Amino acid sequence: MEEFIARLLDLQDIDRRIDRFRADLGSIPRELEIHRKDMSGHEARFNGFRDKLESLKSEQRKLAQDRSENVARIAEYRSRLLSLKTNEEYSAMLKQIAHTEETIDRIDSRIIEAMYDEDEALLQNDKAEKERDRAVKRSEAREECLQQRKKELEDSLLSLEAEREEISLKVDSKQLKKYEKARSNGHREAVTGLRNSACGSCLTKIPQQNAGEIKGGKTFSCPICGSFVVWTSDSSL
Of the candidates 139, 125, 143, 160, which has an alpha carbon nearest to the alpha carbon of residue 48? Predict the structure, then answer.
C-alpha cells in the first residue's frame, strides 16, 4: 500500500468519526424538541383541567348569587302581598312567588350537580398535575443529559478536528484535494477497496488490467466517483 494511502486511511477514519459525532450533535436539538413538546402537552392538559375547575367554581359563585337574588325577590313579593287590593293582583303575585320558588329549586339542583362536577374536576386536576410534574422532571433530567452529551461531543469534535488538521498537513496537497472532492460528492469512502472488480464506493466496474494492478499494490483512481481504489483484506476480483 502506498504511503499516502495509509495517511488518507487515517484521515478517513477520523472523518468517519467526525461525521458520526456531527450526526449525533444534529439529533440533539430534535430530541430536545420532542421532550419539550411532551412537557408542553402535559402542561396544556393540566391547564385544561384547571380551567374547567375554575369555570365550575365561577359557575357556583354565580348560582349562589342568583339564588340569593331570587330569595330576596320572594321576600319582596311576600311583603307586597299585604298591600295588594284585588284578588287578581294577589293571584298574580302568588304565581310570581311560585315561579321564583321553582327557579330556586332549579338553581339548588344545579348547585348540587356543580358540587359533584367540582369533586370530579378536582380529582382530574390533581391527577393531571401529578402527571405534568412527573413529565417535567423526566424532561428536565433528559435535557440535562442531552446538554452534557452535546458538550462531550463538541469537545470530541474539537479534538478530532485538530487531529485531522495535523494529519492533513502530512498528505500531498494534490491527493488531499482529490480525497476532499470525492467526499464532497457524497462518497464518504473516498479510499475504498476493490469489490468484485468494481469500485467499492460507486460500484463502477474496473478494467481487468487495472484490477490486477490494484491487487498488486497499486492505487487506482475511479474515473466516476474519484475515490482511491486499493486492495484490502476483503477485496475480490
Answer: 125
Say how far apart CA 54 and CA 61 lie, in whole Å.
Answer: 11
DSSP 220: E
Average pLDDT (140-149) is 92
Give the model confidence (pLDDT) of 172-194 as tens digits: 999 999 999 999 888 888 999 99
Using DSSP's 3-state secondary structure scheme, residue 205 falls into: strand
Q: What is the pTM of this model?
A: 0.65
Strands 191-195 and 198-199: antiparallel
**What pairs with residue 146 in β-bridges?**
none
Class of domain 3-171: mainly alpha
Angle between helix 87-168 and 3-81 (nearest 10) = 170
Give just the sign of the alpha carbon dihedral 164, 168, 170, 171. positive
C-alpha cell at 45: 392538559
Residue 25's alpha-carbon distances to 19, 115, 149, 153, in angstroms, are 10, 53, 8, 7
Reduced to 3 states (helix: H, G, I; strand: E, B; else coil), residue 237 is: coil
Residues 6 or more apart whose Cβ sits within 8 Å of residue 205: 197, 198
Q: Where are the domains of the chain?
A: 3-171, 174-230
